[in-house]
Write a structure and sequence with these properties.
Elements (H helix, E strand, L loop, with lengths): L2 H18 L7 H6 L5 E4 L20 H11 L13 H13 L2 H18 L6 E7 L2 E2 L2 E8 L7 E7 L9 H19 L10 H14 L11
Helix pairs in contact: 1-3, 4-5, 6-7
Length: 223
């Protein structure tokens, strides 16, 4: 087995092992569509602040994938140079969700994604907003990121819950968008060879959220 082939096999094995933590079996059709390279966000996905040890799937990764995992885990924040410049776009996303208009939500999410990637000087990512979340016994699919080294990477988001068909709450939807953008930034900003769900990954997601949706002073309402 040549070095190039070994590296490809390690990467594929690492991706699959990493994603086993969140979905054991469901959404095989989405993995097939994405060619096994997609990063998926599920309702109830693990986000454990203060976790001191690697997630359980770490031990199943190859040595190369474990190195990528550790590099990801060491970075706890992505600092935006001017987060205030993006807050009108965040407000626009809130307004679009309140309207229930899928096309308006897609435009607003795309503008925020573009604003973030331009501010961080990384290549853009396309955002597609779909209607009702796919679901199975494993949960509801919230978002999907598909990297592509040759074409524009894509984020897919679902704006309505599977059971009641209700529009997803603003903060939940924004966090899902930032989660998928986080996968994009792992490749494009941190220059990692793969994107794993590590404690550092979830902290980076939270750092973006708190910069874009700051908390008001004590006694005040959140912005």
């Amino acid at each position: 087995m040549g070095p190039g082939e070994r590296e490809r096999k390690d990467a594929a094995r690492g991706r699959e092992s990493a994603r086993t933590q969140e979905r054991a079996g469901p959404f095989q059709f989405l993995r097939a569509i994405a060619g096994g390279s997609a990063s998926i966000a599920f309702r109830g996905a693990a986000n454990i602040p203060g976790r001191a040890m690697p997630f359980a799937y770490y031990d199943r990764l190859s040595a190369r994938a474990q190195d990528i995992y550790r590099r990801s885990d060491r970075v706890s924040e992505i600092r935006l140079p001017h987060p205030e410049a993006l807050r009108d776009l965040v407000a626009g996303l809130r307004t679009a969700l309140e309207s229930g208009d899928g096309k308006a939500v897609e435009v607003a999410a795309g503008l925020l994604g573009r604003g973030l990637t331009e501010m961080l000087e990384v290549r853009p990512v396309a955002v597609q907003v779909l209607r009702v979340r796919p679901s199975s016994s494993g949960g509801e699919l919230q978002g999907l990121y598909t990297p592509d080294p040759r074409r524009t990477p894509q984020i897919q988001l679902w704006m309505r819950t599977a059971h009641h068909r209700r529009v997803v709450a603003f903060r939940t939807f924004l966090r899902t968008l930032l989660h998928e953008i986080g996968h994009h930034l792992d490749y494009e900003y941190l220059k990692l060879a793969d994107s794993f769900h590590t404690e550092g990954f979830f902290r980076r997601e939270s750092s973006l959220f708190t910069q874009l949706v700051p908390t008001a002073p004590a006694g005040g309402a959140p912005v």
